[in-house]
Each structure stands twice: as structure tokens, then as C-alpha cells.
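Q: C-alpha cells for this one, please.
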Amino acid sequence: MAAGLFMIALPDPRLFKLGLATIVVGNGMFKPIIPTIVGKLYSVSDQRRDSGFTIFYMGINAGAFLAPLVTGWLANSVFGTEATPAYKYVFIASGVGMLVSLVWFYVGRARLKGIGAPEPEAAGPQRVIYVAIGALFAIPIVYFLLALGGQRLQYVLTVLFVILAVMLVMEGIRDGKVARDKVIAMMIIFTFNILFWMFFEQAGSSFTFLADEIVDRNLGSFVFPTAWFQSVNSVAIIVLAPVIAWIWIKLGKANPSIPRKFGLGLVFNGLAFLLLMFALSSLVSAAGKIPFWTLTAVYVIQSVGELCLSPIGLSMVTKLAPVRLVGLGMGGWFLSTGIGNNLSGIFASAVSGEGGMTTTSALSGYTFGFWALMAAGVVLFLAAGLVNKLMHGVK
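A: Here is the predicted structure, written as C-alpha cells:
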């Protein structure tokens, strides 16, 4: 990831895409592994497991909160101006941050007490070399996928998801009926996860156009920067994550099952779109703007849904995936999230309209988002008994 960030700092379009591909491959080696390690900190039956992932998720969002503020300050005030942001130095600073993180992880791994370390017979540099070679071969493939974009990329991602699902189901079948059922339950949850992120990720796409064009950001003598809306979700996660984690522990045996938590995530995401429907149909001013508080509240409501779903999903994969393929199962989780992200871009382009976002195009798109999310949430609540049966006692 550090190498990729240094590459995109150079002003060359082709090198920029190659740098992005390098970051993607680096993130692919990093992101599925960290939650897998977190999962190994707790036994499968430990009731603190979901809460542990929620706190872990809060840590992620602490960085997500600081990043837009710090990078905006570096680009606009330190190395550039509001008119000409100097993003080159932002990418360089981010690369340095990655290297610092690498050193920190190396120093701090002793505190994991062997969790995440290879088995004694697999120790040594050989596997690391194989992974490095594989990553180098993967970079041009990712470069090609980035060049596809949109619908064509969606076809590729769907094929990859089907291949991964087949691999996991075959491994589950080899491990017996219980393991097979757990994988099927996991794949059902993955499907609903795609839908959640398709609409949740409007936060970084169409909601940004909404904030720029239709939200009244004038707060007296201060105009709230559009980019700062990206930190609202992170602030909400940091504030609410300990509360949600405490609720899961406090509920004890009454703690909702994994599919019902996912259903809650979908419902809360849908409620955020319901608020937008209300604002765009009833609160539009003469100047064609909706109140500032409405979009802020939308980000907060979505954050509650995210906390009901995302950290629980990370915990779920470590419980349901075949023992030998937990990392691949985590890759499936992030692939389903990636499919949702790509669909979110396609949806955002429709919401924004051919001539730019309007109140009409936004209202039409977000109304569809509300009904799709609420319908999916209801279906998952109704199917929770069946999915729980497939999970064979996993809570």
C-alpha cells in the first residue's frame, strides 16, 4: 500500500492507475487478515466476540474520521491552497503513514501472543516469498479490472463471487453436513450484505452531490465544507460503537441472532433514506435547498445500521467459514462489499441524473432505495429462523 501511494503521487495517468492497483492488492493482503486475527482472540462461544469486533470497528473509524480533516488541511493549507489543493503531498504523507504502521505492527505483534503466526512447520520465508510473487502478478490483473469499470466490472466481480462461493461450499461439503450448512448461511448473509453496501455507499458518492447542490450548508457566518460530511459517519461510529457493544453484552441470551442484526442494519439504512424522502418532498426551501440537519441525521442513522451489520459480519465469517479457509471466507465478505460498492456507483450515476443531481432525480432514486432496503430487512427477519437453523447454534 505504501508503494502504491508513492506511485500515485507522481503526475502520470498510467502510473496513477498502476499505483491504485498496487494499493488494491496490498489492501487485499491486509484487510481480510486483520479481522481474522481479531476473531482468533475469542473462542467461538465467547459472548464478547461481537462486542470485540464492534470496538475494533470503532478503531478503524477513528482513522476514517481523522483522514479527511488531516489530508484536507495538508492539501489546502500546508502544501497548497483552497483553489489549488496539493494532493501529491497528501499521497506521500499517506505512504509514510503506511510505513510507520508497518513498523508499529512488527513491534506490537508480540502482544498477540502467537495469534496469527504460522504453524511451526510452515514457518520461514518461503510462504512470504510466494505471496509476494503472487501479489506482483495480481497487480496487472487489478489494473485491467480498474480499466473496465462500471457494468463490465460488475460482470467480472459477479463471476469471482460465484467461483469463491463454489470453493467455500465444496470445502464445507468435505467437512460434513454442519460445515456445509454454515457456508450456505454465510452466502445468504453475503447476498444481503451486497444490497446494504449498494445503498450505504451513497454516503461517499451521490450524498456528496446532494450536499454540494441541494443541502443548505450555510451555518450563519460559516459554510460547512462538503468534504466534512465524510467524517460524520466516523464520529457517529466512534460515539455509538461502545454503546452498541454494551447493548449486545447487556442483552445476554436475548442478544439478537446474526440474521436479525443484519435485518436491523438494513432497516436502519432504509430509515435514513426515508428521512431523505421526507426532506426532498416536504422540506425544500424556496432556494431549492433542504436543511443541513437532515443529511447529518442521515449519516448518523446509517451509522447505526452499519454497527448492526458490518462488525457483526466480520465476527460471523470467523465463526461460519471452514476452519482452513477463514481467510478466504473473509475475502468473500469483502468481495460482497466490493460488489455493493460497484453497484453503488452505478446507482449514484442514475440518481445524479444526466444533467446533474436535481431534487426530482434524488427523490426518485432515494425512494427506490428506501423500499429496496426495507423489503430486504423484512425478508431477512422472516427468514431468520431458517438461516439460524443452517448456522447450527452459532450466535
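A few notes: Strands lie at 218-219, 222-223. The longest helix spans residues 359-391.
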